[in-house]
Input
Amino acid sequence: MITVDIVLLFYCLLLCIVLLTAIFIYLIVNRLREKKNEEAVLNHINQYHKSFYEHLIAGEPVSTEIVPESKFEIRAVEEILTRYSHTFSGEKVVERIREYAQTHLRSYYEVRLKSRKWSKRMNALYHIVDFQMYSMKSIITEMLESEKRYTDDEYLQMFLFLTKADKKLFLNFIGKTEVSFTEWEYRKLVREMDEDSFAQLLQSFDELPQSLQYSMIDMIGMNDQLQWYSFLLEILGSDELEIRIRAFKAFSKLTYVHEPEQFLSYLQSPYWEERMLVARLLGTNHSKEVQKYLITLLADSSRLVRKEAAKSLSMHKGGKQLLQEITIDGDEDVMVEAFQDVYGTKVGELNG
Output
């Protein structure tokens, strides 16, 4: 019985060794094949990069030698076009890249978009977007209208394509899509939109997905879009706290805030985030009235509010001295803490 068990164990170990050896050989062969293909791609790039330069930059006609005939040649062409599309933004160069890709790569991408493999579809979509292949619009539209479910990554690339290829279609699809993009993904889309598309999308702001709303508000501040100042004022009346907070953050990033004292009522907000952001905005108004409110905020229950109020007060004329005097005269822990938060030193140790 023991002998049988030993023999069985031996054959099991032998089988494992054979399987591991086969897997190892497969990986080695596969890696060698990949390396050979990579070398072929690199050789093709080195051999024909000058011809591509003459066509894409100098405007020379497409020579037959740069028309791809195999998969590795297509990979080489994709790499070359990607380098040019990411390096040059001139209208003529972009147009030549588009025309070349639409002429010589369209049929290849049409096949890959129908592949069952996600990686092949994504690779095709990335290049279609990069090369701005607007002739693919009908196919992308069919994919968006199809009952077939794609991944969120694929839908993001489709929408990025439409931001340039067809703004009307983009607005139509983005308004009714059931895809749940993240804020970061929506921000990528918003960044690619032109002013007209952005304005049209704002008209239906209340019906938009929450993450898209947040992204649009954020982009107004990040891009210093003063033309949407009144819109930010309007959404401050929202019942949703996060909308109001985003609006205040956008205001704080604008180069100019008209009459920041109009936000004084929010200093009574039960939410420390709103009080803190208003305290930040008040740093741009140096009136005596605003100064009184900032002094009051130095005793706020939130440390972050106190710190922001002290920062804003320090921006006023004589603000540093005033803050130091208030801290000494008041002898209150919260004011001492606010002073130290801003200047990183104890009261009385501030120079200048």
User: Anything to note?
Assistant: Residues 180-256 form one domain. The chain has a mean pLDDT of 85. The longest helix spans residues 2-56. The two ends are 94 Å apart (CA to CA).
